[in-house]
UniProtKB/TrEMBL annotation:
Domain Dynamin-type G span(s) in chain numbering: 37-276
A UniProt-annotated Pfam family: Dynamin_N
Protein name listed in UniProt: Dynamin
InterPro entries attached to this UniProt entry: Dynamin_N, G_DYNAMIN_dom, P-loop_NTPase, TRAFAC_Dynamin-like_GTPase
Domain of life: Bacteria
Species, as recorded: Thermosulfidibacter takaii
Record GO terms (molecular function): GTP binding
Amino acid sequence: MHFGVAQEKITQAIATLAPMVKEQDREMLSEVERKLKENKFNLVVLGQFKRGKTTFINALLGEKLLPSAILPLTSIVTTLEYGPQMEVEVHFLDGQVKKIEPQNIRLYVTERENPKNEKGVKYVRVLHPASILKKGIILVDTPGVGSLYENNTDVTYGFLPRVDAGVFLLTVDPPLSKEEIAFLKDVYPHVERIFFVLNKVDYVDSDDLQEVMDFALGNLKEALGSNHIPIYPLSAKMALEGRTDGDEGKVVKSGIADLEEALEDFLLKEKGSIVLRSSANKVLSLLSTSLFQVELEIKAATTPLEELEEKIERFRVIKEEISQERRDSEFLFKGGIDSLIKIVNMDMERFQTQKIPKIYARLLETFQENKHRGSLELSKLLDQAMKEILVREFDQMVIQENEKVNAEYSRIARRFADKVNDIIDRLMVLAAELFEIPLERFQVEETITEESSLWYKLEDRPKLLDL
Ligand SMILES: Nc1nc2c(ncn2[C@@H]2O[C@H](COP(=O)(O)OP(=O)(O)O)[C@@H](O)[C@H]2O)c(=O)[nH]1
Ligand SMILES: [Mg+2]
């Protein structure tokens, strides 16, 4: 279908749907409509905290616009789209919009200047003349996940349904963390297209780069179960410095050109279809939930009042019963989790009472064997012995606990999922019976048993032995 025709059809569907949906869904629809009309889509920069997302966006813009440093953490989403001149708007949660000077962005988007978002900012919108934006993308800088501030993770996750395509930043130091893999698995189903970038390559020399790339690639392949994953090496910092200093050599060395080329190629060839597909999907999913409500209303309008009141009363009684059951199930689930936590705590205590003496004995042994050595060497040996025994004991414990926790958690979750499915079933049958509406059945998946595992962290140098 021609882009214009499809665009028109989706716009019509939005216009029909808009008056029928809830306020907040209407907001989402009008955003979809705007993006569709302007043929724009969100290219969201994702990744863990401090991977260089903000630096990368600044490099694309060719100027140090958004605040990035070791300390100030972006806790607010910033969107950037094309405008003939730079303009910055702060959109507040209460609906107000304020124009600000570009150098004041930091007052709103950093944790230091706006702790816990006490200023009530919803997002910051930047209009900018950069050529990459001219092609119709809305670049989005997210706070990132896995930072100290839980709020950031929530904000980033909250943005996922709005992602059309993503740039996912990894770094060479360390190549891929457990949290990153978990986050990536969450992101993947939401995104039509994702570009992987291995940032901070200036930390490794060119001999090691291939090795680091292969390692990251192997991890990604394993995590995503896919074989074709292009990954772009980059030094966002070098690209930004090169552009702000007018040092073309640095820009070339940074690797940004390949990535920009891939992005532009993608914009040229695929953007239109992604805009359409992603808009249509968003409208469709809203449509299917709205449809049920509309059908209910139609049925209600055509049923005699008395009969309807009787049905409503029956529905109310059964609904109350089901609510009670839901509360019971939640209670059961909580109880299950509590007892799981107790089991883990008990295991930890047992680990402590059994293993700590063993660790001490081993350290003492090392000390006795080596006490004739110099204090620096002795301290090194003790460090090493401590690390070895800790790693060995902890590894063993973690493997056992993981198995136990996963098995027990799956069991609890399965029971809970069964109950929830049962409740959904009954509600549907009831609604279908009372109001004669055919419904599509859906299942609560057992993915409720999302696996997450225990881990521990060993400092390079145990502080205990800081002699
Ligand atoms: N060496 C090096 N440092 C970088 C690079 N990109 C970003 N950084 C630094 O990493 C830190 C975090 O960057 P930032 O862009 O704020 O990360 P964000 O939290 O993902 O937005 C800053 O100190 C940046 O200067 C890079 O390519 N190389
Ligand atoms: Mg940032």
